[in-house]
Sequence to fold (651 residues):
Amino acid sequence: MSVQDVQKVKIPAGAEASSIDPAGYQRLYSDSITDPDAFWGREGQRLDWIEPYTRVKDTDFTLGQVSIKWFEDGVLNACVNCVDRHLPTRADQTAIIWEPDDPSEPARHITYAELSDQVNRMANVLLSQGVMRGDRVVIYLPMIPEAAFAMLACARIGAIHSVVFAGFSPDALSNRINDCEAKLVITADTAPRGGRRTALKANTDAALLHCSDRVRCLVIKHTGDQTTWIDGRDVDVLALMREVSPDCPPRPMHAEDPLFILYTSGSTGRPKGVVHSTGGYLVHVAMTFDTTFDWRDGEVFWCSADVGWVTGHSYIVYGPLANGGTSLMFEGVPTWPDAGRFWAVCDKHKVTHFYTAPTAIRALMGQGPEWVEKYDLSSLRILGTVGEPINPEAWHWYDTHVGKGRCPIVDTWWQTETGGHMLTSLPYAIEAKPGSATLPVFGVRPVVLDAATGEVIEGNGVEGVLAISDSWPGQMRTLWGDHQRFEEAYFQQYPGTYFTGDGCRRDEDGYYWITGRVDDVINVSGHRMGTAEIESALVAHAKVAEAAVVGYPHDLKGQGIYAYVTLMNDVPATDELRAELEGWVRAEIGPIARPDLIQWAPGLPKTRSGKIMRRILRKIAENDFGALGDISTLADPAVVEELIENRMNRG
Ligand code: 6R9
Fold:
């Protein structure tokens, strides 16, 4: 039985029809892992294949010979699956809604017919610049539709795209261009964001000083701002797109040909180029977009991530478009012109699905519910979160004020490396528990391992580290140019499984709770604790907006607990409050969790995707801030200086 076959059920109490009911989930899940070939063989039919596959799964997790292949003899084109095949039925349907940074400027509604025209033209521009199958193209663009056109144009001609987040520095950009030996980079003149402008072309000029002079620079004139121009190297993309043919035959690709490389942070300074495949990746994101979000025709999906992150790849571009959906792309930020912008956009475009990160929810929660209440959010049907564990307070705020208690919330756990969702609740089928990513996606086999011995811990009510015991189609295939590092990073520590790097608990109901990266586990007087637990307690206090907890060397306890706390607006930072918070955590979790040091933090060091950079916080807490390592991915480096200046541990 495939997902589409599960009978649609009406669930009681006026709730909506659902594609999968609770019994349907259990049945499907157990089928999916009992016979993965049969399950994924059917799921593969979600795509259009030029040559059908006869083999489904061919994977080996054995150290020294790790090899992951899915649908290996199948031939397809990812762009055709996201664009061409929808034309007979959806030519006039909106594929992409684009909401600009400045709300007074008009939104764009790009139909599938227009998407096809633009992507074909962009593909012809790439061909005219000598881009061939297998060549790498770096995309350094703001959140504009041309970013999606560029990704799909690469897919159309078999080039491998590598999107670099527009907030990254010239250094980070040149490192990535060099690591994948890109033939060209696609950028824009400038990028408006929150009323300010980032000089992308100037950044690219700076980056290209450190790259081969054969690298071409394709420029989208987005704002029309003045930029430097190097004849012979720089190309005006939009002008060329008007000249070339709107017809570019798609290149038939093998399922295992790389679709894209996406760089993610590792523990060393060197970027880690995660490689995803054409066939398996697309099957996984097509399925999870449909099932996790209970997708239905005519709805409007908004994922607020940036296309520079995996979330943007899978759930702004490939997942929604493979399903013939309507995907909203937002150029701006949640708090400009004011803290109501997200909700204004939901209202304006009648968004049905809103998918964001807990950090954004906490930030908006700190601004008060009146910003949400100004807007009509009755179009919303499903809410989602991704990126980190959501603390129950933020979950309840999201549920009450945004979802009005009537929208299921899916908490999706996954990674750049996994391609798509791995653990998540399902609307109407898997009941949520605030803070838990709940149960595995079909075909995914999570296991909890003893961190020290690597043994599989069976049963419920257990805790350990999270690994995946067998492959799934969206799994990364290798690290670009370094298969050995791939094996070492993910398969060496716990042989025979893919190691996620996350800690987790499986509760009495079999629900998974991610306790944070394993390196975030601290050991205080012999007690192992996830820093997330203490943070969750701190942010439950009415005066606390955000908190980050790390360990630091402590003479008596081995590790002490160091908490960075951001207070709600206008709350004075006093010693009384510090004592109150210590007592609060002690009361919430127990005496063992009481922070030893609390530092008031006006801001926390975050990546542009909103992840707190704990490595930096650990260094400051250890009073060892001389070598902070690579801070190129920080959203606001000034935050770090402030924290160093006011550090609490000077011993
Ligand atoms: C998609 C994405 C991956 C890491 C992952 C985990 C954390 C992501 C989460 C979550 C708890 C969730 N994470 N989703 N933790 N609950 N729903 O974020 O990819 O940037 O590679 O980060 O993020 O620690 O290992 P990526």
